[in-house]
């Protein structure tokens, strides 16, 4: 998915606009919950070398939070990498060539995992 497709999906699905919180960086877009302000997706422009790809080109990547149980299986597929600049146990990096349905599923998972936790009812 392209940066624009990701932005459109998140906006349509969750009503969330991209934020650019870093003063000297107009490329890094953060998506966060309206209520708790937690990040659930980050789009960055990085050198492909950061993903251990032998290329001087840059690419837009997407970082999302995911269940550690599923991260390992995604890392076996094209377009999925250990999280760049995030906790590698709980986050995954997605490159543009990744399967779009899986990207949307992981965005949805990240949104759910970073949402407000419900308090357990007392017995």
Short account of what is shown:
The chain is α+β, with helices and mostly antiparallel strands and 123 residues long.
List the helices and strands and how they pair.
Layout: H1 3-14, E1 29-32, E2 39-47, E3 58-65, H2 68-74, E4 80-82, E5 91-94, H3 100-113
Antiparallel strand pairs: 1-2, 2-3, 3-5, 4-5
Descriptive overview:
The protein is globular and about 40 Å long. It starts with a helix and ends in a 10-residue tail after the last helix. 27% of the residues lie in helices and 23% in strands. It has three helices and five strands; from the N terminus they run αβββαββα. With 123 residues, it is of the alpha+beta class. Strands 1-2-3-5-4 form a five-stranded antiparallel sheet. It has a single domain (3-113), classed as Aspartate Aminotransferase, domain 1, CATH 3.90.1150. The relative contact order is 0.19. Strand 1 (29-32) and strand 2 (39-47) form a beta hairpin. The longest helix is centred in the C-terminal third of the chain and has 14 residues, at 100-113.
């Amino acid at each position: 998915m392209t940066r624009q497709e990701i932005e459109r999906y998140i906006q349509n699905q969750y009503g969330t606009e991209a934020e650019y919180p870093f003063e000297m960086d107009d490329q890094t877009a953060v998506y966060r919950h309206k209520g708790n302000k937690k990040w659930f997706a980050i789009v960055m422009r990085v050198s492909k070398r950061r993903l251990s790809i032998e290329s001087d080109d840059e690419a837009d990547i997407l970082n999302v939070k995911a269940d550690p149980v599923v991260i390992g299986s995604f890392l076996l597929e094209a377009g999925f990498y250990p999280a760049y600049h995030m906790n590698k146990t709980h986050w995954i990096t997605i490159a543009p060539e990744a399967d779009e349905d899986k990207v949307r599923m992981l965005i949805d998972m990240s949104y759910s995992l970073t949402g407000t936790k419900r308090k357990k009812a007392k017995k």
